[in-house]
Structure prediction request, 381 residues.
Amino acid sequence: MATAALLLTAGCSAGDTGAGDPSAGGGSASSSDAGSRSPSSQRAAEATPPAKGSVKVVRTVAENLKTPWGLAPLPAGGLLVSSRDEGTITRIDEKTGRKTELGQVPGVSAAGEGGLLGIALSPDFASDRMIYAYFTSASDNRVVRVLYEDEKPAGEQLGAPDTVFKGIPKGFIHNGGRIAFGPDKMLYAGTGESGDRGLAQDKKSLGGKILRLTPEGEPAPGNPFPDSPVYSYGHRNVQGLAWDDKQRLFASEFGQDTWDELNAIKPGDDYGWPDAEGRSGDAKYHNPTAQWHTDDASPSGIAYAEGSVWMAGLKGQRLWRVPLKGTATSADPQSFLEGEYGRLRTVVSAGGDRLWVTTSNTDGRGSPEDGDDRILELRVT
Prediction:
């Protein structure tokens, strides 16, 4: 059974109660807050989820999507989905499944694992109507923002792209691509080392990192290295970013041949690649919260719901539930949907006990069936 191959690791260098600087949006409560709480309230705040959970596929929201990658729920309803290979952003009516193409993002150069990847809404989307997108261009990986003008005709609803950040190394593989705004309203971006292993340990390189930026693309205040956007390093190919209910950041990462990882991210820490893949005996590397054999995971997007991180598996063709206590696992991870929908790419919270999940069978590595690719709505515990 797949879970038999799973090796769990404890909370490692971040400790069990926090995984980052609170001012940076990746940490636990401030010391003043912690000091004002009684021990019993602190224990309640760290209540663990049940050891065993469940997943029910409520419905198929949309079908016949081409290489879906990023997914962003709109505040007033609807889902935005990016197409890696076509370079388009489409709005899905989550009630009817109706698709409306907003337009194509100029400058996308899709090849291999590159193309139009993660998308995220501005923290001020209600007023500025900005969509952020991470994509592979002819020369690099970069982040742009585009104005969403829904009063215009379909296909013409995206404004001209404004480049927010550029110069992230590109390759046929390992382009990273996940972006998300944190609780601190800063922009986090997971990058890959583009197949050049040495970049991951080079703190001056943008490859193999988690970056933390202002919405305008500057190094965010409070970053661990002066005047640098680098938040953590020693990553191979970061594919998922999510925060728990204590504002602690977690990230999923492709391994090479042995171990895939779910990591609790602490600013300034070294996550080991290429010197360590998975758990290491060397104290200078931050060990993963959990790790899997690559056949069982090849992780992509993650989301937090009901006390657990939910992680999509591409090669593993399943959804993993990782129950947490602090930044450690509280029980063995469970797998769900194994082989039922093929490759799973992106997981996004739909609020409460609901998740949106996209399949990824049209990405050149899957076996598409009628209706692929899909967005599913799940209810989880």
About this structure: The longest helix spans residues 39-45.
